[in-house]
Amino acid sequence: xxxxxxxxxxxxxxxxxxxxxxxxxxxxxxxxxxxxxxxxxxxxxxxxxxxxxxxxxxxxxxxxxxxxxxxxxxxxxxxxxxxxxxxxxxxxxxxxxxxxxxxxxxxxxxxxxxxxxxxxxxxxxxxxxxxxxxxxxxxxxxxxxxxxxxxxxxxxxxxxxxxxxxxxxxxxxxxxxxxxxxxxxxxxxxxxxxxxxxxxxxxxxxxxxxxxxxxxxxxxxxxxxxxxxxxxxxxxxxxxxxxxxxxxxxxxxxxxxxxxxxxxxxxxxxxxxxxxxxxxxxxxxxxxxxxxxxxxxxxxxxxxxxxxxxxxxxxxxxxxxxxxxxxxxxxxxxxxxxxxxxxxxxxxxxxxxxxxxxxxxxxxxxxxxxxxxxxxxxxx
Length: 380
Description:
The protein is α/β, with parallel strands linked by helices and 380 residues long. The protein contains 12 helices and 12 strands. The strands form 4 sheets. The chain has a 6-stranded parallel beta sheet. The relative contact order is 0.15.
């Protein structure tokens, strides 16, 4: 397929050369977080280290040619749980075991309901204000906030594969629909507060669909799969209601990422008629870095005009992909989505949790540079 000579100019996400959001924590930050856990430094001292490391990260993001900037999720331990704990009505607990990934078990932190859910005064709004100062006077970049999807919160609180494990939600809500109604309002509140702080780019990260992709995971579900899929879709779309027209909200669909290990396998085909066809986001960041992801055929469900960011470069392994093969993958995907509606990125963040993936910071930036080179080769 020949490459067109003109393209739509992009001033908001997604960008031709893009990324998912999180970066490896530098040693200085990892050490400070350990000291803070042990009570050897206080909250202010930790924040000072976080601020310093985030400022350095933003400078690197700009230097490597990225058009969006994030805080790398440096103020979080987890990509998802820290946000959930910041919602009113949700509390942090620990259990005997963590989540089971293929080949590894995660730490044992969880989120459960302790009351009705609402979204006022979420700490992530203040987190965003810090990075916004580095974008508002720089027209070459836009500040992006990443949050877990509402469907991820639903899957965590209800736990469709073990309804007794997380049954506390039933103390506060009569039905699943009542829960997601409050959750949708909570997200709308957070989005409104982020918007008021200057945010025009939000990415909702979503692993809730990953179990529905994997036949082995589906076997563990105690609810009808169609019911679960419709509930997840409804949760996400409720949160997206009433958003301002100039607020771009995208989603990243992932099969799990914990210290370079994955949670599930399977193509997007089984969920594409739900999430691709009906979720009211502006763009999809999709994991397509290995054979677990299946073919690009599910992209036929992407509505006309919507954007797709192809995660064809892995963030899990240090080996650098071949540029020509990356370009070939992009061209292959253009059989289903017009090339002008495609972008490229790593398949996931480099550190979904603070432990990070099994590669070095230099290898991480080599991957980002490859993304930029691929975008330049395809789109100029």
